[in-house]
Design brief:
- It is a single chain.
- By secondary structure, the protein is α/β, with parallel strands linked by helices.
- It folds into two domains: about 190 residues, 2-enoyl-CoA Hydratase, Chain A, domain 1 (Alpha-Beta Complex); about 50 residues.
- The protein is about 45% helix and about 15% strand.
- The strands form two sheets. A six-stranded mixed beta sheet has the order 1-2-3-5-7-10, with helices on both faces. A four-stranded mixed beta sheet has the order 4-6-8-9.
- Helix 7 runs antiparallel to helix 8.
- The longest helix is centred in the N-terminal third of the chain and has 19 residues.
- The relative contact order is 0.12.
């Protein structure tokens, strides 16, 4: 149900569970395991995740898998958290190509990505309270960071479904494209990532996350300077400067 293919330095991941690309315990384990595999593959600099078909990115959890079963529900939500936290903290850059409805755990998957591109017909929501649940795939924590407390409360506490246009306006997505174009746009973004030093990008991503993880500003600024100097331990730093001075494209090796 989780398919992937590596094209150059980019891994294309597809959620393929028709008709609505819902998440199951098996697919959540698969995305966590795939993230670990890609973390170890130093030739992968970015990953794009999308849904199979034209209607759904993902409609969220397959509720039938834990209906009325407290033990199964505990296992399911633990898998949601583990999978999306792993994806959120991946070494590489992650981009969601939102090709349709992103509801509940589907939107939480997109929220765990570094960047989001939505198609014009996409709709996004966290409707869990409407069925007596709550967004526990990191949704209550990630959404306010992106859109602010007010919009997070509108979406979660009033079950407001947002369009791609609104999502762009409030900062939920970074770009909106025509129907059928999100994967193409996400791949183009990933190509830009591939033009940068993988180790520099990895360090920058960690430093950016420090801000939302509550690291004090003074500590964050100190770490920023430390990581700058740490880059001098890697071959890519020397290659980057040499390529600039020689007016050529760098040949990154992630070393």
């Amino acid at each position: 149900m989780i398919e992937h293919v590596i094209e150059g330095h980019t891994c294309i991941i597809t959620i393929n569970n028709p008709p609505a690309n819902t998440w199951t315990p098996e697919s959540l384990r698969a995305i966590k395991e795939l993230t670990a595999e890609l973390n170890a593959n130093k030739t992968v600099y970015a990953a794009v995740i999308t849904g199979q078909g034209e209607k759904f990115f993902s409609a969220g959890a397959d509720l039938k898998r834990f209906q009325g079963d407290r033990v199964a529900a505990r296992e399911f939500i633990a898998l949601f958290g583990a999978a999306f936290e792993a994806f959120m903290n991946a070494r590489f850059v992650t981009i969601a190509a939102i090709n349709g409805y992103a509801m509940g755990g589907g939107l939480e998957c997109a929220l765990s990505c570094d960047l989001r591109i939505a198609e014009t017909h996409a709709h996004m929501a966290l409707p869990e309270p409407a069925v007596g649940l709550l967004p526990a795939g990191c949704g209550t924590q990630n959404l306010p960071w992106l859109v602010g407390e007010g919009w997070a409360k509108r979406i979660i506490l009033t079950n407001e479904r947002v369009t791609a246009e609104t999502a762009l306006r409030i900062g939920l997505v970074e770009e909106v494209v025509e129907k059928g174009k999100s994967l193409e746009a996400a791949k183009a973004m990933a190509e830009r990532v591939a033009g940068l030093s993988p180790k520099s990008v990895e360090f920058c991503k960690t430093l950016i996350h420090n801000a939302r993880n509550g690291v004090p500003r003074s500590a964050g600024l100190s770490l920023e300077r430390e990581r700058f100097m740490d880059l001098f331990d890697f071959e890519d730093q020397k290659e980057g400067v040499a390529a600039f001075l020689e007016k050529r494209k760098p040949n990154w090796k992630n070393k």
